[in-house]
Write a structure and sequence with these properties.
By secondary structure, the chain is α/β, with parallel strands linked by helices. It has 11 helices and 10 strands. Helix content is 41%, strand content 16%. The structure holds phosphoenolpyruvate.
């Protein structure tokens, strides 16, 4: 089965509107030569720069993602942004459940589940992040944690097309630390998640759903990570802030046969 890899750049709290515009123009130039269908690319600027990115990337092969969302349609939720607003500004994706949201902003499996459902209703694609902390890995409960996050995050979600959801396995100890998971570690957990997806959805859906790896992905390690059977792309933090390193990752991802 052929799968188009997906590379997503999570900018976190970086870049002004002007910096976003410069980046988007530069990225379009750099990855122009990549045939559509070979690699899919998305960038996730902060909320303040989404409109600028969407404007510059319109009619290009590069999609725009938000870094978070709130599940309600509208209402008295000061500071929050709804799926409808993200659709309105030109997003295709929204990251949910990122470990930094879980760690600093009280994101829970239940709130991730509500966000996923709200995004799907609005025809936006959740990039659902999960992964164990270093303490959990040391304690030997990685599989238990990942299983809980997967089951609770996906509870009641009804999707019929594998393109409607993306999972990102991000071991927390590998995020922003320079300590990338070994290709074997990056394969082991996505393979386990895929089994859970098979139970939750169906074998066909499970095969078609893209599972990204995230955690200190760089131009130097993307090829060996992408060589793993169950890694269908990457969620990239630090190395996505620079056009050269992000486009080198995109080029290194290549198409893959399954
Ligand atoms: C991330 O923020 O999702 C991430 C993987 O960051 P980094 O690539 O910097 O480890």
């Amino acid at each position: 089965m052929s799968q188009t890899p997906l590379i997503v750049g999570n900018w976190k709290m970086h870049k002004t509107i002007q910096e976003t515009e410069e980046f988007c123009l530069g990225l379009k130039k750099e990855i122009d030569g990549i045939r559509s269908g070979q690699v899919e690319v998305a960038v996730a600027p902060p909320f303040t720069a989404l409109a600028a990115a969407a404007r510059l990337l319109k009619n290009s092969s590069i999609s725009v993602s938000a870094q978070d969302v709130f599940w309600a349609e509208s209402g008295a939720y000061t500071g929050e942004v709804s799926p409808k607003m993200l659709r309105d500004v030109g997003c295709r994706y929204a990251i949910i459940g990122h470990s930094e949201r879980r760690q600093f902003f009280h994101e829970t499996d239940d709130s991730v589940n509500k966000k996923a459902a709200a995004l799907i209703t609005e025809k936006l694609i959740p990039i659902f992040c999960l992964g164990e902390t270093l303490a959990e890995r040391r304690e030997g409960i990685t599989f238990t944690v990942v299983e809980r996050q997967t089951r609770q995050g996906l509870k009641g979600l009804a999707i019929t097309d594998p393109q409607d959801l993306v999972i990102a396995y991000e071991p927390v100890w590998a995020i922003g630390t320079g300590q990338t998971a070994t290709p074997q570690q990056a394969q082991e957990i996505p393979a386990f998640i895929r089994k859970l997806l098979q139970e939750h959805f169906s074998p066909e859906m499970s095969r078609g759903l893209r599972i990204l790896y995230g955690g200190s992905v760089k131009p130097e390690n993307i090829a060996e990570l992408m060589a793993m059977d169950d890694v269908d792309g990457a969620l990239v933090g630090g190395a996505s802030l620079n056009v050269k390193s992000f486009s080198a990752i995109v080029r290194g991802a290549g198409p893959k046969e399954k």
